[in-house]
Amino acid sequence: MNARVPEPQTLTGRSVALTPLIRADLPELHAAIAHPEVFAGGYGGGPAGLPTDLAAFLAFAESYYPWTTGIPFLVSTVPMPEAPRVVLGTTSLADLDVTNRGAHIGWTAYDPRVWATSVNIESKLLVLGLAFSHGFDRVKLQADAQNARSRAAITKLGAVFEGVLRHDRVRADGSWRDTAVYSILSEEWPEVRAGLDRRLAVDTRPLPVF
């Protein structure tokens, strides 16, 4: 049985909301993630790929995010009447192969102020749930092989390390990137989901005040 491509939709958790990314969101996303420390780990082609200003970021976003091959999401706080949303970052579900039931969660970046908070845990819980509920059997996650912080975060999600793709792509500075590949299978998802739920249950830290 084939998987089904999800319709673009809003995913709402305890403290974060994921809404389909639109071009009008890009100035707020630029303010959240266009920082040297975000690109230092390999995001967007590495440090040399950091857009110099908003206009450059808009051009970068147009070619970088998987607008036509999946669902890019804007990650924000859950909007409340008394507290408008705060943009925290982005992640995407893309490379949707319905015949072989494979998908890829990536293109993920957050405002450095929410690193080491529950934002990534909850975001991944929501997107993984979307993928597996639509019949996908394998969800891939990957990172620059040199990015120890991102690789540790992927491992803590419960993903299984599959190996390193050598000279997988060219970085913005012309050097080669090796890519560390991880995955979660549908039969592993219940245990992974339970682990993420447990991590969220014990994490009572509020998000930073912006």
UniProtKB/TrEMBL annotation:
Domain N-acetyltransferase residue range list: 17-159
UniProt keywords, alphabetically: Transferase
Domain of life the protein comes from: Bacteria
Xref: InterPro entries: Acyl_CoA_acyltransferase, GNAT_dom
Gene Ontology MF terms: acyltransferase activity, transferring groups other than amino-acyl groups
Record-linked PANTHER family: BLL6696 PROTEIN, N-ACETYLTRANSFERASE DOMAIN-CONTAINING PROTEIN
Name of the molecule in the record: N-acetyltransferase
Organism name: Labedella populi
